[in-house]
Amino acid sequence: MGNRGSGTRARVIAIALAAALMVLTGGCSNDRAPTAAKAPPTPIAKLNTAVMRLARVEFCSRVPDAAVKDALDSTKWRPAAYRNGDRTGISGLTDTVAEDGCAWAAVSGDALARAWVFAPPADRRLARSVIAEARHHEGCRLVHGPDFGSPSLTQVCRDPDGVRVRHAGLFDTTWLSCEISDSAPARAVRERADAWCVQIANALNTTR
Predict the structure, then answer these.
(1) Model-level pTM greater than 0.90?
(2) Quick check: 114 and 97 in contact, CB under 8 A?
(3) Given the DSSP bridges, would you call strands 87-90 and 112-118 parallel, antiparallel or unpaired?
């Protein structure tokens, strides 16, 4: 249910990119809404998540290129998208996703940025179950982090390819997840993930 992060980076890429409807050169689709302007650099700890209302829609084209550049620390990437109801092949099994998601993989290096939002409305019970499940992911741990929705989680995972930092949380009835993985130092990945998730939340925010 949107939680694809328990394996290695190779599996993460397989889920994100094998699920893609198409691979694009400048956004998720040429017929989507124009790319939004880059949001002000609000620190994640000061993001007013209590009043934010996030749309459960396709949002790839709403994410500014500048935000992707900062997230990947790269100027060239391969984007991909998948939609609620898509059937995808993952590890030889067929899976139907119940989310809208995007992925951007750096052309050079190991950096990967992802974000996804549950398509159905979510509630606190579902959010607590996702958080409980996240506690059991191999190679991962939940750490203290900013309130990114209520309730929310901050997860740090390590594998031979590097580190992955994920924020996820409930915004009213929308469950949003966003993450950065890279072979860069953990602190740098954490800082980029914090800024990335602010950009994703702002891209979906209907109260701006």
Answers:
(1) no
(2) no
(3) unpaired
